[in-house]
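tool=predict chain=A
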Amino acid sequence: MENNNEKMVIQLLIGKQAFPITIKRDQEEIYRRASQLINEKLGRYEQSYPHLGYEKYTSVALLDFAVQVLQLQAQQDQSPYENTITRLTQELEELLAEK
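tool=predict ok
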């Protein structure tokens, strides 16, 4: 039986660079998808701003991903409060409807 925690080396092409990366076997798909997302974003910036250098494309792509991560973290931090507020609002509405 294959062990999914077994390490393996994969080659990822990110932008113009090839990277050999050692990962757990069960994480291969997510690394390949991440590489694809990066390359798509770099391609969009390169198409939209052909006069800029590759270093600027990578910097803007990194900034874009960092903003997305922070936005997702902020949403996750708020969700318990939103659920509690929704539940309390429903309880209040039920109590008010009884009167």
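The helical segments are 28-48, 54-98. Residues 7-98 form one domain.
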